[in-house]
Amino acid sequence: MTFLDMLATAERQNASMLCIGLDPEPTKFPGKLKGDANKIYDFCAAIVDATADLVMAFKPQIAYFAAHRAEGQLERLMEHMHRTAPQVPVILDAKRGDIGSTAEQYAIEAFERYGADAVTLSPFMGFDSVSPYLKHHGKGAFLLCRTSNPGGDDLQNQRLSSVPGEPLLYEHVARLAQGPWNLNGQLGLVVGATYPAEIERVRAIAPTLPLLIPGVGAQGGDAVATVKAGWRGKAGVGGTDGETTATIIVNSSRAIIYASSGDDFAQAARAQALATRDQLHAARH
To answer: What is the pLDDT of residue 132?
Structure first.
């Protein structure tokens, strides 16, 4: 199945728009795992096993593994996710942004070494930094568009020129992704949950693209406002009418994976994931 097919399946089977971000920091690990970087796989696998029937996607952040020399554990985790939850796509949060042969190697790393179904990218070196990933049939690529950090205003919220009516940079990225860059229908956009007005604007510009929306939970994004801004009724991947157009993938990381500091961390993560999934689902109505 392609990445979009997997999204449709997971959304339908799990009745979910929730993505869980896997950002393992050993100093925050619960109970007997605390401080042990060799237990990154164990921690993340327990979260995955407890929540796989509640999510639309998982999103491991590669830096949290690489910083602890845990790339091997990430490989094991990717294999575990695809084996135990084959219906749930995995988005590798790497934010790569290079060009040429280097970008080709990063694409091989994401899709062949780790087996990711999609990857996050920085598009600010232009289409040259995106096209190598589109050569991998059926894989997805999410372009940073309007991110949730305050510093995003430094570039993303600036106009391309002083001419009245010129788009903001993030609007231009959305138009490129919706139009000429989306050669094989593989692109999506990253839009932060802390800016619901911008989510709504991006959705208007890019009505058929999946939106990956981080920032719900610990970063302060509001789940209900996020759904209202980005979800458009029947415009959902795997909708009951069979349309395959756009969807939103709402990510929460720390609020779920660190829901408990005790040995019940997996059960607590499940409870928090269930509450968040149901909150997102209710916001549709």
So the answer is: 97
